[in-house]
Amino acid sequence: MKLKPSSKAWMHEHINDEFVKRAQKEGYRARAAYKLTEIDDKDRLIKPGMTVVDLGSTPGSWSQVAVQRLKGQGRIIALDLLEMEPIKGVEFIQGDFRDEAILKILEKSLNGKQVDLVIADMAPNMSGITIVDQAGAAYLTELAMEFSKEWLKPSGNFLVKVFIGEGFDEIVKNMRPMFDKVVTRKPKASRGRSSEVYLLGLGRKP
Domain spans of the chain? Predict the structure, then answer.
């Protein structure tokens, strides 16, 4: 199959991307690892002893970072619609986060224990229709927020990928009453032309 010019340009950029090269060299499954490491270096979210839930985890680079930073102390539960190759120290649930039955499996695995940190790097399958994709992404963010509302312990933190556009202001507005502080992060590994940013809710209010 012949690649379209846009696909060729993407492939060229991808192969020459410094974060792709670093990920390959340092054993991370995706360049996204550096988004979390930069945010965590700044905000100190992951500490040994924590329970961390990683939503939209596949291929697993955020879970890899969390494992390293928990230093063998704590628990990581990862969930994704797609299969994920096992990572030592990570409990993986395969299923659709939008499915009530899958959410119940995740909640049951917590054994009634609240979590310290929810990280969500989720995105819907992109259709290329902006309004549809933004609505799909916003819905996933809402679900992650609802989960955090239910399961984050007081003073816990919530990091979620969002897209600037329709519904962004609404998401920020809904997060503000839940946390002491809500900030935006745009790590260097997030491509400049991408509308993705990360919202960080710091200090879950009781």
Answer: 30-204
What would the DSSP string read from start to end of the chain? -PPPHHHHHHHHHHHH-HHHHHHHHHT-SSTTHHHHHHHHHHH----TTEEEEEES-TT-HHHHHHHHHHTT-EEEEEEESS-----TTEEEEES-TTSHHHHHHHHHHTTT--EEEEEE---PPP-S-HHHHHHHHHHHHHHHHHHHHHHEEEEEEEEEEEESSTTHHHHHHHHGGGEEEEEEE--TTS-TT--EEEEEEEEE--
For the whole prediction, is pTM greater than 0.85?
yes
How confident is the model at residue 135, as a pLDDT? Answer: 77
The confidence score (pLDDT) of residue 13 equals: 53
- Residue 54 Cα distances to 3, 8, 9, 11, angstroms: 34, 32, 31, 28
Q: Beta strand pairing status for 115-120 and 90-94?
A: unpaired
**Domain spanning 30-204: which CATH class is it, in words?**
alpha beta
- Type of residue numbered 56: G
- How high is the pLDDT of residue 10? 43
pLDDT along the chain (206 residues), means of 10: 51 68 92 96 98 97 98 97 97 96 97 97 76 80 95 98 87 96 95 86 97
* Tally of CB atoms within 10 A around 135: 14
Instruction: List active site positions.
Output: 161
User: How much is the pLDDT for 107?
Assistant: 97
